[in-house]
Amino acid sequence: MTPEELKVDQLVDPKSLLNELNKLVEKYDGDGSSFKLRSEVLTKLKSTHKEARKEIEKLLMDDGQGRRCSERLSCVQDMIIQVIYDFAVTHVYPVENPTKSERISVIAVGGYGRGTLAPHSDVDLLFLWPYKQTPWGDQVVEFILYMLWDMGLKVGHSTRNLDETIKQCREDMTVRTAILEARYVWGDLELFQELTKRFDKEIVSGSGPEFIAAKLAERDDRHERHGASRYLVEPNVKEGKGGMRDLNTLFWIAKYFYRVPNGLGLVEKGVFSRRVLNRFRKSQDFLWAVRCHLHFLTNRPEERLSFDVQREIADRLGYMDHPGMRAVERFMKHYFLVAKDVGDLTRIFAAALEEQHVKSAPSISRFLGSFVPGSKHKRRSIKGTRDFLVENGRIVAAKEDIFEKDPVNLIRVFYLIDKTNLDMHPELLKLVRRSRRLINADFRKNEQANRLFLKILTSRSDPETVLRAMNESSILGQFLPEFRKVVAMMQFNMYHHYTVDEHLIRSIGVLSEIERGMGGDSHPLATDLIKSVHSRKVLYVAMLLHDVAKGRPEDHSIAGAKIARKICPRLGLSPAETDTVAWLIEQHLEMSTVAQSRDLSDPKTIKDFCRKVQSLERLQLLLILTVADIRAVGPNVFNGWKGQLLRTLYYESETILSGGHGRMSQQQRVDFAKQELAEKLEGWSDEELDNYLNRHYPAYWLRVDLKSKINHANLIRMTDAEEEHLATAVKPHAFEGVTEITVLAPDHPRLLSTIAQACFAAGANIVDAHIDTTKDGLALDTIYISRELPEDDDEYRRGERICCLIKEALRGTAPVPEVKGLAKKPNARSKAFSLQTTVLVSNSWSENYTVLEVTGLDRPGLLSDLTTEISALNLNIASAHVGTFGEKAVDVFYVTDLTGQKVHNVGRQESIRDRLKNAFDGKKPQKAPMSSRRRPQKLTGK
């Protein structure tokens, strides 16, 4: 585009700017080498560039055209470089009679070569010589670079002659890609034209398959580094799957293989239709708008669309709140739909390339699909259908009208994918997408279509892959309109790692893995129970629909149950099965909530839970669904700790629901846990084992995982031989991003508060905690703090320093350091969220204790503040449950007054609510009186 079309001629006029610089030269009597002159020239260039960028940002805010913004920035950069070059060769290093070797061509390469530039992107330049570098050329290049650097620009540059450039292109695919996008900026035009001519003849000609293979391998590697899913809730706009680099890869391959300068050339070659090209341009424009806003907003080359910027970018792009969906969630849904379009464009492009060139260049095909290099297009039939065939390892349509004649084929084709374990040919995928309008209200009632879909959903092979293919082709949302509403829907929180539709499909994959016995070590009970489930389809249907009502004003569990009652009969489920599916969806969060935030040793907790579950079959189904749901939230969200809590809740409930005849009584499970530990402890005498196995209460044996039990046993054994029962242990967990600190100490009322204060004073944020007491008066505290240092050795030393502070505080040899400003600010990601603090005071959740549930935005020092305030309120903590779900903290305390009674006084309950809310919000808590006495504390984690 011309500067006039881009509106940049009003921002920077090279002739006018150069005239101003010429006047500065006159001011210094034509001395182009004057330091003061250079300083004034630099100041003028800086101000011009800064004002132009400000105006370009305003234009972006006005017209919202991202691609146009990048072109304006590129055009302004061109003009600045042109002025600097002309000034250098005219006034600083003039040559009256230049030789043939004293020529320079200034060439834009990389993204800048495409004529686009993000606000903080590198300016990639190639300074090209005809033969060898001359002193004059060296001086001019140095002047240009220093001017650009002093302007604050990041410049990637290389200086080569023609022969060197061609040689580098031949040896290095990165250089070859950069030169592919080379664009003349200024200087010697003839030199640039000679480069492009030689590049086409000596490099590009005949090397298409090699280039395509390299670019696609590079793409796969990039996806692996930045996240294999395009539905990660904090995507990388540039490098992530479905981002700008994927579009760039298409452009590179197209330009290299078809030798076309732009998208219109691809239409002329028959690669894209105009409609598809428009999708390409719309996707590109949107991604450029997001990227430019991201750079302008953060004032740096930020490419990750993190939580702390998503809300403001949504506002910049003009998104508004709708009932059930915030503006930021609507923006992110648009983003993920665009990422999905980018995936579609990739498949369409691959199909066209394969169709047109596989015969002449069969080696291309193995990078685009599952073709066998050099094989002929042999077709074979598929048993049970005449409408589909297999060609070169992929399913193809027998005729173009197969969907018009029998729309059920739109579901059948995915059933065949599952049955044959073959991929769909991209041309068939295009036909499927074009035909999806055939799925209407009447189609959705078709018994055969519903029967086939249920077979896909409950497949014993790999239902996740097939359902994802259905979703990518938009068939799943067309067949289940309720599912379509959550496609690409993001939940604006730090707990969920994927969009809602991706989470649902992943949860089906996890459920299938559990059924096939994969990963049983992390959830052995679910793996065992699923073998005896009477109705698999109930479980799979509930799993697919459990979050399908997200984004509605009504609670998604209740609304989801209503949706299930409409869909299940259509899928062929009986009334009883429909009721079970609806109940599972309505209660799908219940087991997780109770296990992670209630005292499982309290009989009323178990009784209330059983009152909701009502039957052993429902308990089994709910346990399996809960495990799969948590595991599908994101990597490592499900852990051994949560698994142990769920198993404990299951076994306690099973005993009641089976009339006291559960598969294992509590005592049997305790005995089993003891025996399991005894077999793992090496070098212990029989007497030592007997004594140790009797030191813990039953709750410890039921709640703690085996690995932790072994570590605890060795730690206690070591301190038994010492005079002081005080020891600590540190273990960094790199993948989880936390560091585990274990503290063994004599139990006393303020133990938890002291440890929490010491961690806070050391700058450690507690995200999880677990404390048990032994029968002989020891407390075993396991605290998880946020990791700060990348290397395990460094983080271990940090943990040791925190342990020293804890020991000094517990011994009383040194007071806990005061922390100025009670509450540290949340980190940048947490700042993006706003959660109202709520405090519930309930006497109905436990028969013996008042339960305090405090919920709000997590922050460093929170547990320290809450436990200190509870001490100041003269409350005894019987047990506590610390939970962190992304940015949300849910802390539950089981308390009594100093006489061991519940808190019944309404006025005191109100005071507790107010003071805990103030403590949660970071207002200074009261110090506990020295006379306060509390019962020993037992703290369980999430």
From TrEMBL:
Activity regulation note: Uridylyltransferase (UTase) activity is inhibited by glutamine, while glutamine activates uridylyl-removing (UR) activity.
Cofactors: Mg(2+)
Superkingdom of this protein's organism: Bacteria
Catalytic activity: [protein-PII]-L-tyrosine + UTP = [protein-PII]-uridylyl-L-tyrosine + diphosphate; [protein-PII]-uridylyl-L-tyrosine + H2O = [protein-PII]-L-tyrosine + UMP + H(+)
Name of this protein: Bifunctional uridylyltransferase/uridylyl-removing enzyme
Feature: compositional bias, Basic residues: 932-942
Physiological role: Modifies, by uridylylation and deuridylylation, the PII regulatory proteins (GlnB and homologs), in response to the nitrogen status of the cell that GlnD senses through the glutamine level. Under low glutamine levels, catalyzes the conversion of the PII proteins and UTP to PII-UMP and PPi, while under higher glutamine levels, GlnD hydrolyzes PII-UMP to PII and UMP (deuridylylation). Thus, controls uridylylation state and activity of the PII proteins, and plays an important role in the regulation of nitrogen metabolism.
GO molecular function terms attached to this record: [protein-PII] uridylyltransferase activity; phosphoric diester hydrolase activity
Presence of the UniProt keyword Transferase in the record: yes
Classification via PROSITE patterns: ACT, HD
InterPro entries: ACT-like_dom_sf, ACT_dom, HD/PDEase_dom, HD_domain, NT_sf, PII_UdlTrfase/GS_AdlTrfase, Polymerase_NTP_transf_dom, UTase/UR
EC number: 2.7.7.59, 3.1.4.-
SUPFAM superfamilies (UniProt xref): ACT-like, Nucleotidyltransferase, Nucleotidyltransferase substrate binding subunit/domain, Poly A polymerase C-terminal region-like
Start and end residues of each HD domain: 500-622
